[in-house]
Amino acid sequence: MPEWGRLSVGTIVLMLLLELKGACASKGISILMYIACVRIAAPGRSRYSILYSHPNASDLSDHLMGVPSLLDLARFHKCDVYSYDYSGYGISSGHPSESNQKADIRALYD
């Protein structure tokens, strides 16, 4: 059984698609983007949160079942863990770029 299938009571996994509305200033048009992200809540009340940006050549799914996984990270540190797919990776829309990566992080942080 995959690790996410063995979640203990009190652990919540949410898959979200964040809807981001931005503007392309040079063309004066609005754009709509989606970022795939996950929140893994530690059992009980957590005092801390980690915003995890995965390394190059991977996507969110690699870290849900990897060793160690994001679930392991939440359990070990007794904190909530948030992670996401960068724009243009995994199931997130958009194009990969440094500016989009910074915007993705800001969207999750806000």
Describe the SSE topology.
Elements: E1 12-24, E2 29-41, E3 49-52, H1 60-64, H2 70-77, E4 80-84, H3 98-109
Parallel strand pairs: 3-4
Antiparallel strand pairs: 1-2, 2-4
Overall description:
The protein has 110 residues and is an alpha+beta fold. Helices cover 23% and strands 32% of the residues. The protein has three helices and four strands; from the N terminus they run E-E-E-H-H-E-H. A four-stranded mixed beta sheet has the order 1-2-4-3, with helices on both faces. It is globular, with a radius of gyration of 15 Å. The relative contact order is 0.21. The N terminus is likely disordered.
CATH-wise, what's the superfamily?
Answer: Alpha/Beta hydrolase fold, catalytic domain
Give the N-terminus to C-terminus distance in angstroms.
34 Å
Quote the average pLDDT. 72
User: Can you count the helices?
Assistant: 3
Low-confidence stretches: 1-15, 21-30
Biggest sheet character: 4 strands, mixed
The CATH topology corresponds to Rossmann fold
Residue share in helix: 10-25%
What's the number of structural domains?
Answer: 1
Lateral strand order in the biggest sheet: 1-2-4-3
Q: What series of H and E elements makes up the topology?
A: EEEHHEH
The CATH class designation is Alpha Beta
Give the helix/strand class. Answer: alpha+beta
Multimeric organization: single chain
Q: Number of DSSP strands?
A: 4
CATH-scheme architecture: 3-Layer(aba) Sandwich
GO molecular function, one term: palmitoyl-(protein) hydrolase activity
Keywords: Signal
Protein name: Serine aminopeptidase S33 domain-containing protein
InterPro entries: AB_hydrolase_fold (IPR029058)
